[in-house]
Amino acid sequence: MNSLFRLSVVGIVLIFAMASSNLSAQEDEGRYEQTDIEYGATVYAEHCVTCHGDNGDLLPQINLRNGRFPNSPSDRDLGNTIRNGLPGTAMVPTEYTDSEITGLVAYVRNISNVPLGSVTLGDSVRGQALYEGKGECGSCHRVFGQGPRSAPELSNIGAMRSAAQIERSLLGTEGSLIPINRPVRAVMQDGTVINGRRLNEDTFTVQLIDDQERLVSLEKSGLIEYTILTTSSMPVYEQILTDEERADLLAYLLTLKGLN
Ligand code: HEC
Ligand code: HEC
User: Fold this and answer.
1) Does ligand 2 lie within 6 Å of residue 161's CB atom?
2) Are 95 and 213 within one domain?
3) Under a CB-based contact definition with an 8 Å cutoff, are residues 124 and 255 in contact?
4) Distance (Å) from CA 225 to ligand 1 centroid
5) Does residue 160 surpass a pLDDT of 50?
6) Measuring from atom 38 of ligand 1, which residue has the nearest CA?
7) Using alpha carbons only, what angle is made at residue 116 by residues 52 and 156, rounded to the nearest 5 degrees?
8) 0.85 cut: is pTM over it?
9) In the β-sheet with 183-188, what is the strand arrangement from edge to edge?
10) Which of the ligands is closest to the CA of residue 105?
11) What pLDDT score was predicted for residue 22?
């Protein structure tokens, strides 16, 4: 009775946690992280320079450097303006991923502090080689059909997570382990232990990929133990890779937008 109650409390907490893990990359209004600013600068260089110029002051009617955007008071508004354009002007709707919007907003809000030419992301080609080689990422992760399913698939990571969030994952920084990615341990009535990663969960059941890459669906009421762990099995790459190598890897991961 008591344990059933506890399980359903866990379930409710999880539903909340999972819902919040689906929030867009742009969560922290007014807080800009260096990595997002840098990523934003590269997206800006590719998509915005033609009209707004290197310094953001090319257009007579709007100077991005003074930070006064009549139609975009909040960061959320600014993200929407960048995505949806401004009707009746040359600024037309364009599809950007959440990660790109987070970067663009961070960069535009800081455009006077960050000279455009001064920022470079890493080299994504070198990053891909590190992913496959020294980083051994492919021994746990899957990208475009290659690799195991024991860790989260990364084919869409560059669209789903902000640059700063991906960097936190590589550094193993606090807050990098998002709730749905927490590993779980379940013990069945007969004592069988299942370690795995959740794909889906509701109050009564959980679907997971176990460490043998099997898809398992469990009724929580039939379990002796159900524990959500708070430590990741992913190596901390702060020491394993140099700063430059991590920058290259980040550049590569940001190219993974699920389009292939
Ligand atoms: C094809 C030209 C063009 C491109 C490309 C373009 N813009 Fe604009 N943008 C404009 C024009 C024109 C305006 C001014 C509209 C007006 O108010 O008259 C504007 C306005 C803005 C504003 C002011 C919004 C407000 O609240 O008034 C921001 C911020 C902005 N652009 C950011 C960007 C960013 C970031 C990019 C790249 C992702 C971008 N723009 C790409 C032409 C462009
Ligand atoms: C030993 C297995 C293992 C290796 C090796 C590994 N990872 Fe992970 N990774 C995981 C697990 C498990 C998670 C989910 C838990 C977490 O977020 O820490 C994860 C999470 C991540 C995330 C966050 C996913 C999300 O949904 O936000 C990223 C990004 C990532 N890994 C990238 C990498 C890269 C790049 C490498 C190689 C440098 C790598 N991983 C190597 C196991 C691994």
Assistant:
1) yes
2) no
3) yes
4) 55
5) yes
6) 48
7) 90
8) no
9) 215-219, 205-210, 193-201, 183-188, 223-228
10) 1
11) 35
